[in-house]
Design brief:
With 108 residues, this protein is of the alpha+beta class. It has two helices and four strands; from the N terminus they run ααββββ.
């Protein structure tokens, strides 16, 4: 299995999966190695689904508070962002955006 980013594990669906896997391990229904394989499959599936199925576009305007780059992973901290979608707009006090270089399966 190719290496994929693990940051989607911190999303609400990723955290729910981790909680469920922990319960299954604690109850003895699965072993930790299987749980790690499930998480690796989740990393691959969520990245593939987002890249192939999401077609919506958004524009945003905000104040850039902080940014940094480490190992091709950029982190931006924005204050007072306004995100504009086709028929809607959303505002927030603060947003953190993590952007990663796209990986092609099989590429290291």
């Amino acid at each position: 299995m190719s290496q994929y980013y693990e940051h989607y594990r911190k999303s609400s669906i990723g955290l729910a999966l981790i909680d469920s896997l922990d319960e299954l391990i604690q109850s003895g229904h699965i072993n930790p190695q299987l749980a790690m394989r499930v998480l690796a499959q989740f990393d691959m599936s969520i990245a593939d689904a987002l890249s192939s199925r999401v077609r919506n576009r958004s524009n945003f305007k905000a104040h850039l508070d902080n940014y940094r780059s480490l190992d091709d992973v950029w982190t931006f901290v924005l204050s007072s962002p306004t995100f504009r979608f086709e028929h809607d707009s959303v505002t927030a006090d603060k947003v953190k955006i993590v952007a990663c270089k796209a990986r092609v399966p099989g590429e290291s």
